[in-house]
């Protein structure tokens, strides 16, 4: 299937090239619009985003190349069971609403830049804030890795093999780090507006064209029944546990992404934040479900891709190829969808890169150089962005994992930060030591399960069908409760 039809001909390359030039222009515009050489201005856009820009940057960041490529591939492999995807994306918004408004109010008073800033101010326990910062950066590095991998697959497939995976990764990586270091959060958010519009239009286009060209009822019933008899079977008990496990893992872990937290801080007002999240609640229907539908249609129309390494992760691109061959007059719309995929990838990578840069600068470099000026810190952050992007691009070129598995690994680690953030916002009695102890144990257990099979140890990656990260979260909460109980016992006995 690969290479049969190059979607990006000269016209398509010009379209994508023009789009990339616009992104660079927005990065320059963001630099010209900066008001001061401060971390708040560079990393949070001066805390000035109204509901429209805030919604678009949240939307473009949350729906990434992972969604358009990784989710379609998982839907192809898992069938009906991956209907969990729209559900956990809706749970993400519920997660934001549980803590974001109050955290925003605190950030206005205290001037937070990163998630660790909030935790250090709330608990005054440096090991806790540094561990949260470290886990966030590990998750974001993985996030960049998965999206760069998706980018390479996209370029190679769409160009019919004219450009290789590594060439696409390197070229687009340079463009992203350029406009990110030029415009900071302001430039990133403005590019997210363009990228978000392309993403939404692209999802609508591919969904509409699939329904226009094929009888979706016939493909999703007759063809799938013939090719995959078990495709529509409801999950067994273990499958149901796995389904719920996936919803909990992705729903809660995505809601504490460090770059998502920074967008909470960047809102102009609490009303802007609430309004953008209210609209976000409907987006899983128009994006995640449509992409899952693409994976299902692909399983019916292009069966047997499991035998080819990495082929299922390219299913959305193969479907575009198929549509171009059969309805060439609509090729422009396919190029629009490819632009949407590129937009989705770039909007998440630049946001993750900016967040890692801010964490390294604010949480770590400033710890050892407390007298550094704001301008110096912003400069250090830009240098770190270039170094990080170079390292991540090289790792992406070497990666052999499926995209969705890489997504799972980062979220299992990030899930361990949920108690500190959620409970930190809403409770005043917990101590930083207990949350640190719980997070350390939960992280250790999660990592042990994740690496056990690689080392040949007899530990499953998903005990009883439940993600290792959720087992870690359970122990995390248990340790928090135990340490808090032990610390309070002496005062109760004294009474």
Please describe what this structure looks like:
This protein is an all-alpha fold. The protein has two domains: 10-404, Sodium/glucose cotransporter, CATH 1.20.1730.10; 429-495, no CATH class. It is 78% helix and 0% strand. The protein has 21 helices and no strands. Helix 14 packs across helix 15. The termini are far apart. The mean pLDDT is 83.
Fold-level CATH name of the largest domain: Sodium/glucose cotransporter
| Main beta sheet strand tally, sense and closure | none
Gross morphology: globular
The share of residues in helices is: over 70%
The average pLDDT value, as a whole number, equals 83
Give, in order, the helices and strands: HHHHHHHHHHHHHHHHHHHHH
- The tally of strands reads 0
Radius of gyration from CA coordinates: 22 Å
Q: Report the end-to-end length measured between terminal Cα atoms.
A: 75 Å
Discrete helix count: 21
CATH architecture of the largest domain: Up-down Bundle
Poorly predicted runs are: none
User: Any idea how many domains?
Assistant: 2
């Amino acid at each position: 299937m690969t290479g049969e039809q190059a979607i990006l001909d000269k016209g398509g390359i010009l379209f994508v090239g023009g789009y990339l030039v616009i992104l660079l222009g927005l990065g320059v515009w963001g630099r010209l619009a900066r008001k001061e050489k401060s971390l708040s201005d560079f990393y949070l856009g001066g805390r000035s985003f109204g509901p429209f820009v805030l919604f678009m940057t949240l939307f473009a960041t949350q729906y990434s190349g992972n969604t358009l490529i990784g989710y379609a591939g998982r839907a192809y492999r898992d069938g009906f069971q991956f209907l969990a995807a729209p559900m956990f994306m809706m749970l993400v918004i519920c997660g934001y609403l549980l803590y974001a408004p109050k955290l925003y109010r605190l950030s206005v008073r205290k001037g937070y830049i990163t998630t660790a800033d909030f935790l250090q101010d709330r608990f005054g326990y440096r090991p806790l804030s540094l561990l949260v910062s470290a886990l966030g950066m590990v998750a974001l590095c993985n996030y960049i890795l998965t999206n760069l991998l998706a980018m390479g697959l996209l370029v190679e497939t769409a160009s019919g093999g004219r450009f290789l995976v590594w060439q696409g990764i390197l070229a687009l990586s340079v463009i992203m780090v350029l406009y990110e270091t030029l415009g900071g959060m302001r430039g990133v958010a403005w590019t997210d507006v363009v990228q978000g519009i392309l993403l939404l239009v692209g999802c609508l286009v591919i969904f509409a064209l699939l329904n226009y060209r094929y009888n979706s009822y016939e493909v999703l019933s007759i063809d799938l029944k013939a090719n995959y008899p078990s495709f529509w079977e409801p999950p067994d008990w273990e499958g149901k546990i796995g389904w719920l496990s996936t919803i909990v893992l992705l729903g809660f872990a995505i809601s504490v992404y460090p770059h998502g937290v920074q967008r909470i801080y960047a809102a102009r007002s609490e009303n802007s934040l609430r309004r953008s999240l209210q609209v976000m609640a409907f987006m899983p229907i128009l994006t995640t479900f449509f992409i899952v539908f693409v994976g299902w249609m692909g399983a019916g129309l292009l069966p047997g891709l499991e035998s080819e390494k990495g082929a299922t992760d390219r299913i959305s691109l193969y479907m575009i190829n198929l549509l171009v061959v059969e309805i060439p007059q609509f090729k422009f719309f396919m190029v629009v969808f490819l632009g949407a995929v590129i937009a989705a990838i770039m909007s998440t990578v630049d946001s993750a890169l900016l967040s890692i840069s801010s964490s390294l600068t604010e949480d770590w470099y400033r710890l050892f150089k407390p007298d550094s000026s704001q301008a110096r810190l912003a400069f250090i952050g830009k240098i770190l962005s270039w170094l990080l992007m170079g390292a991540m691009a090289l790792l992406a070129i070497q990666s052999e994992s499926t995209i969705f598995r890489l997504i799972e690994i980062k979220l299992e680690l990030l899930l361990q930060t949920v108690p500190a953030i959620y409970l930190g916002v809403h409770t005043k009695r917990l101590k930083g030591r207990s949350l640190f102890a719980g997070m350390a144990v939960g992280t250790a257990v999660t990592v042990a399960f994740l690496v056990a099979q690689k080392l040949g140890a007899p530990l499953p990656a998903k005990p009883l069908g439940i993600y290792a990260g959720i087992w870690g979260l359970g122990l995390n909460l248990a340790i928090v409760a135990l340490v808090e109980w032990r610390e309070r016992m002496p005062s109760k006995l004294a009474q």
